[in-house]
User: Fold these one by one.
Assistant:
Number 1:
Amino acid sequence: MYETTLASQIAIQTTYSKLFLSLGELVVAKEPMQVWTVLGSCVSVVLYNQRLKISALCHAQLAEEKVFGKTRGTELEQYAKRAVKNDFRYVEHSICYMLEQMQLLGIRKREITASVFGGGNVIELFTYKAGDENLNATYKVLGEHGITIVKQDVGGNKSRTIRHFTDTGITYVRKL
C-alpha cells in the first residue's frame, strides 16, 4: 500500500512526466517528474535539495565492482554476469556522480538529504546476501560524504516499488 500522509502536497502539480529507472540507471531531475522503479536486492538512493527542488535517483545493482570476484562459483555468478555494463550499476559510483552533479547545480552537500530504498534479500536460495552488501556500501558512502538519511525502507525479503516526485521530495513505497 502506498503512503497517503503527504498526498495533499502533490495535488498542486498535476502534469508530471514519468520516467522508469532500470538497472544501472540514474537521473538528476531539475524539472518536476515522477520517477519510479522496482527493487529487489538493488538499492535506490534518492538525493534531494529542498531549496532548488532538485532530486537525483539511482537504481544501483551491486555494492562494488569487486563483487564479481566474490561471486565466482556461487549462484549469484549468473546474476552478476547479466549486470548492465555501466558504472552506474555500482552504489559508490552512482552516489558520487549524483553528488557531483548536484554540486555543479550550486547545491552544497549540507543542503542534500538522502532516502534509501531496497536492499532486500529477495532470493532466499542465495547464500550471498546482495541486498545487505548494497546497503552496507550505501551507508558507507553517504556517511563519508556527510549526507543525512531522512527516510528509508530497506532489507527484508520482499521486493518493492518506489515512486518519487522530484520537486517535492516525496517518495511512495509499495512492498510486493
Note: The first strand starts at residue 17 and ends at 20.
Number 2:
Amino acid sequence: MADVNIVQAQGFAGYSGSFTDNVTEGNSVILLVIGANNGGTMSSSSPTYNGSEPAGATMLAEVLENTGSATVYVAAWLLPNLTGGAQNLSIMVSNNFYGSPATGFAAFEISGLGANPTLDAYNTDSNANSGTVSSGASGAISHAPELIVAALGTFGNAMSEVGSPWTEVQFGDNFLLAAAQVADISGGSYTYSQTATSGAWAGLIVTLYVPPSSGSGSGLLMAGFP
C-alpha cells in the first residue's frame, strides 16, 4: 500500500513563486488557484515547474461564480511525477483583475502518489451571496490511502482556517483557503467549509489515489471525471 504524505505546503501572492525546499524526484504537486474580476469569464492554463509545463499536467476541477459584477474563480491542477531538484512554480490565469495580495495560488508537494495519480471523487460549489463557503461533499472515496485536497475562494471576504485534520494554507488577504489531508480508510465523504461575510464565493474538493499498477509512466487516470 502506498504511503501518501504531505511534504510541504505554501501560498503565493500572484501566479508565480518558489517552494522553500526543492521538490523530491517522483513526487507530485497540487496547485490550488484563485482569481477574481468584476464579472466575466476566467480560466487557468499552462502550469509550470522549473520553467516548463510538466508531462501529465492536468486540471482536476474548476468552478466559477459570476454575479454579473463580481467573479470568483477556483481551480485545482495536478503536476505528477516531477523530476525533482527545483522549487519554482507558476500558472496563467486569464482575466484576473485583482493582483497580489488578493489573489494567487497555493501549492502542496505530495509523496507516495506514484507515477499515475488517479482522480477518484470530486465536487464543486459556489454561491453569489452566502456566508457559508463550502466545497460541497466529495462523495464516498473508494480507496485508501487517498489524498483529499480542497480550496475556497471569496470575492474580498476574509475567512479563518478550519483546523485539524487539515493541513492548510491561508493567504491573499485571507480570501483564499487551501487544504489537504490523507484519508487512511475508504468509504468516507469529505467537505471543506468555512464562514465568511456575505458575498460571492467558490469552492472545490478532489481526492486522489495511486493505482496498484502505477508503474513508471506519467499521465493521470481520470477515473470518475466527466
Note: The radius of gyration is 16 Å.
